[in-house]
Design goal:
globular, 117 residues, alpha+beta, two-stranded antiparallel sheet
Length: 117
């Protein structure tokens, strides 16, 4: 049985309004785009707020990623609720963010849909 080429897109039909799919396609065609996440988002027609830091990573097959929640200023556990948003692009696309950043993600998706639509 033939196996698909690792560099071939895993999805067939490209959805012009799918931000995660557009980011995945951009990453697969130009991995250096993650060096400047804000510029990468601007190329997709999405503005990001300055107070939110973006960290774009291209997953490696040989790496396990552990995201540790932040500690509070008093040394205890922070009350920030981290959210994970799973999205279909390739095998899987994952956003990990604080609860407050979820609104920014929804805004970015809406900006992309409005640009693409």
């Amino acid at each position: 049985m033939a196996t698909p080429d690792e560099n071939e897109p895993a999805f067939g039909v490209v959805d012009a309004a799918d931000l995660e799919q557009a980011l995945t396609m951009l990453a697969w065609s130009d991995p250096s785009f993650a060096d400047d996440p804000r510029a990468a988002m601007r190329t997709l027609g999405v503005d990001t707020v300055s107070h939110l830091r973006l960290d774009i990573r291209i997953q490696r097959r040989d790496t396990l990623y552990l995201i540790i929640p932040p500690a509070s200023s008093d040394g205890g556990t922070d009350t920030v609720v981290n959210q994970m948003d799973l999205w279909r692009s390739g095998e899987q696309f994952v956003w990990i963010m604080s609860q407050d950043a979820k609104l920014e993600l929804l805004t970015m998706r809406e900006q992309f849909r409005n640009r693409a639509g």
